[in-house]
Design a protein that fits this description.
The complex is a heterodimer. By secondary structure, chain A is an alpha+beta fold. Chain A has eight helices and five strands; from the N terminus they run αβαββαββααααα. The longest helix of chain A has 17 residues.
């Protein structure tokens, strides 16, 4: 029961807290691509791969009081901050999940910016295309983000490293 | 590029739009392909027919309906080139071509994705790709990108996928028509007449706001009254358990009376080839379910018989954090000789009727519905509509437990609180 919800909870418990809806989305997507057992369906949206199912789960976890959602002021805008509650920890005692050794990768992703994870998840999404085609996608679909070649190189380096570490 | 036109316009009679008009040869040829004709054998609403007996319409009807709405939209959009118009029409027609039998349940159990199949059908070795390639070599890829939302022109993508798009407008009207409910109706003529291009999407003239309100409320009603109807969900639960049981039996080398060959590639996760996927339709799946009613495996035959004869599971409201009840029920079901894996299910549908980006908050992935004001400015819908504001961003959940009432013991009955 609510096993997929429990996996999201487990991820949150592992890394402590996640700042930003976008970051949570991209972390789940990237770990799913690295064969961790997340089963949400992702589609390409404005900010890269996005799962409506994951949004629903997060909202349901909030409604059930298993996670806390706080708005964090970032100056001219605010982001949502997520953390597991005591009730959530109790839930994980009843609904067991096994996501293997997700902590090192999840922590590494959580320590990077949402902007970079948007780029990295986009590179994962178009992984089957040639490098040239991926760059074209990034420069047209993400023109407003103005990613540099250096950032794209870095995303490719991460992709290889993450693939090798799994 | 000038798309080839038919010598004269062809029309299909349609109960929702009255007529569906075809002028481009490419569209006519696409409809004739075996991959598109296959959609006649895939129902639009899966198990909803168990609740609303009229809901037997297919994805073929719906796809033609989305095409027709798109045709009406692009005819007025002067910002589009002739090739872009054809691109919009082909994308609308083919947006659901990758759906399989009882998609939502099938995909969950066998971990397939109809959007990935759509891409493979459009870009793979199919008649559809041949027809699209007749427009230009890269045309199949463009169509695939529009449907996959990765095409560079965001306005074109938004016409097929946004909070007010051709797909949603058709399915609400069509599903309302075939289920016989009144909720899904709204004034589509007015919405289409008042659509205007704005920035990277479409806006609706302010004078059409009430028609858009009707559309949003219709959507809300349809989700809770039709799509999430607990009887429909009950049939889905049984179908899901049935697929899970069949897969488990296959994995354990169970000897099926009639070997379910077309399903085997799906029992082996991710091993289905395009041709195998295209060969599978609801007629095939229902044939095997009927055969399974005669299987020796009691769970498989019982679930199959329930599905064929509409002996569905009953349901009660359930608080998902009541762990004790869940644990108790698991034990009680086992004591009664019922495997809870197949006879006890928790289900929790949810819908968000409309949402938008609030200034100052984190970026929102959903494209808002914009109103074109008399002074030429653009306003987000909920800022002008009290009705839409009252349901914006509010998600509703419905937690239920499903079980076979005819097989439970008095002790289980008591624990569930049913008489």
């Amino acid at each position: 029961m609510l096993t997929e919800h429990a996996k999201v909870l487990f991820l949150l418990e592992s890394v402590g807290e996640i700042v930003g809806r976008k970051k949570l989305q991209k972390m789940v997507y990237i770990t799913q691509k690295l064969n961790f057992d997340f089963n949400q369906r992702f589609q390409f949206h404005f900010y890269g791969p996005y799962s409506e199912e994951l949004t629903v789960m997060t909202e349901e976890l909030c409604e059930l009081g298993l996670i806390e959602e706080h708005q964090q002021d970032k100056g001219n805008y605010s982001v949502y901050q997520y953390a597991i509650t005591e009730k959530g920890r109790d839930f994980l005692h009843h609904v067991h999940v096994n996501l293997g050794n997700i902590l090192p990768i999840a922590s590494k992703l959580n320590d990077s910016s949402s902007r970079f994870l948007e780029l990295l998840s986009t590179v994962f999404y178009f992984e089957q295309l040639s490098r040239e085609e991926v760059e074209e996608k990034i420069f047209t679909l993400k023109a407003k983000q103005n990613y540099s070649h250096g950032e794209i190189n870095e995303a490719y380096r991460w992709l290889q490293e993450l693939r090798q570490s799994c | 590029m000038t798309p080839t036109l038919l010598e004269e316009e062809k029309v299909f009679k349609d109960p929702v739009h009255r007529y569906i008009h075809v002028r481009y040869k490419t569209i006519w040829d696409l409809i004739d392909t075996p991959e598109f004709q296959r959609l006649r054998r895939i129902r639009q609403l899966g198990t909803t027919m168990f609740t609303f007996h009229g809901a037997e319409h297919s994805r073929f009807n719906h796809s033609l309906g989305v095409y027709e709405i798109m045709r009406r939209i692009v005819t007025k959009l002067e910002v589009l080139t002739e090739e872009e118009r054809l691109l919009c029409l082909c994308s609308a027609l083919l947006h659901d071509v990758g759906h399989g039998p009882f998609s939502h349940t099938f995909e969950k159990v066998f971990k397939t994705d109809h959007e990935e199949w759509t891409r493979r059908i459009i870009e793979g070795d199919t008649e559809i790709r041949k027809v699209l390639s007749g427009v230009s070599a890269d045309f199949p890829k463009k169509v695939s990108e529009v449907i996959g939302k990765t095409y560079s022109n965001k306005m074109i993508v938004s016409l097929i996928s946004s909070q007010i798009d051709a797909d949603r407008m058709d399915y609400l009207l069509r599903d309302a028509y075939y289920t016989g409910v009144n909720y899904g109706n709204f004034d589509i003529e007015r919405i289409l007449r008042l659509m205007r291009p704005a920035e990277e999407q479409i806006a609706i003239k302010y004078s059409g706001m009430h028609a858009v309100e009707d559309y949003i409320v219709s959507r809300y009603q349809m989700y809770w009254q039709v799509y999430f109807h607990p009887v429909t969900r009950s049939a889905e639960v049984i179908l899901k358990k049935l697929f899970q049981r069949a897969k488990l039996l296959y994995d354990c080398n169970y000897h099926f009376r009639i070997f379910p060959e077309p399903l085997v590639p799906f029992f082996k996760d991710g091993q289905a080839k395009l041709r195998q996927y295209l060969d599978l339709d609801e007629a095939t799946v229902i044939y095997y379910i009927r055969e399974w009613t005669r299987e020796e495996d009691e769970i498989l035959s019982d679930l199959a018989e329930r599905f064929m004869n509409r002996r569905l599971f009953k349901y009660i409201q359930y608080q998902p954090l009541d762990y004790q009840m869940w644990t108790d029920l698991q034990g009680l079901f086992r004591d009664a000789g019922l495997d809870p894996t197949y006879y006890l299910e928790f289900d929790s549908p949810s819908d968000l009727p409309y949402d938008f980006y609030r200034s100052g908050e984190e970026e929102e992935e959903r494209l808002p519905i914009l109103l074109l004001m008399p002074d030429g400015s653009l306003e987000e819908l909920s800022r002008k509509s009290d009705i839409v504001q009252s349901i914006s961003g509010k998600r509703r959940f419905d937690h239920k437990l499903y079980f076979p009432e005819d097989r439970i013991t008095d002790v289980i009955r008591e624990r569930l609180g049913v008489n």
